[in-house]
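The instructor's notes for this session suggest beginning with a concrete chain rather than abstract definitions. Hand out the sequence below and ask the class to guess, before any prediction is shown, which regions might be ordered.
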Amino acid sequence: MGDAIALLLLLVGLELVLGVDNVLVISIFVGKLPKKRRKIARIAGLSIAMIARILMVLAVLALASLTRNIIGHFSIRDLVLIAGGMFLLFKAVREIHNTVEIKDENTGELHPDDHRGYALIVAQIVLLDIVFSIDSVITAVGLTRHIWVIIGAVVLSFLLIMVYAGPVGEFIIGHPTLKILALAFLITIGVTIFMEGMHKEVPKAYIYLPMGFALAVELLQMRYEHNRRAAGK
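After discussion, reveal the predicted structure:
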C-alpha cells in the first residue's frame, strides 16, 4: 500500500510538471472569450480532458498497438504527436501574428452568445491535452498496472490545475508581453512534440530551462516598470 501511495504522488508530480503546457494553452485559448465565461470554459475543457485522459489510460492498457508501427516506422502515438505538434505550431504562430498586429484587441473577443466559438475553444483545449498527455499516460502505464493509482493521479492533478490555471491564465492575458512569451513557449513545445513524433528525442532540460530563464527576465522587467511608474519616473 505504501508503494502504491508513493507511486501515486510521483504520478501526480509528473502530471503537474507536464500541466504547465496545458495552462499555457488554456490561457491563450480562453483569452478570446468574455471574462465571465473564461472560468466556465476552463472547467469544461479540463473536465472533458480529464475524462478523455482516463479513457486513454484504459485504451493503452487494452491496446498494445498504440506504440506499434502501423504506417512505415510510425505508430499511433507518433502520428498523434506529429499532428498535434503541427497544429500547435499553426495556432501559436497565428496568435503571435494577431497579437503583434493588434488584430485581436476589441475585435478578437468572441460574442457572449457565440456558442459555436465557445465549443470550438473547449474542443481545442481537450484535443491538445490529449496530445500533451499521450506520453505521460504511456509512462504511467509502464510504471504500474494499478488502474486506481493512475486514475487517482489524473483526477488529483486536474483538480490542482483547475485551481491555478485561472489566476495564471488571467495574469498572462492581462500582460501582452507575457502572452507573446507564452506563445513563443508553445512554438518550442510544438516543435518538440513534432520531433518526438519523428523519433528525434529532445532533452526536456533544453526546453524548460531557457523557458524558465526567459520568464524570470520578463518578470524582472515587469517589476522594474512597475517600480519606475510608482516612483513617477
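Then share the key points. The chain has a mean pLDDT of 79. Residues 2-202 form one domain.
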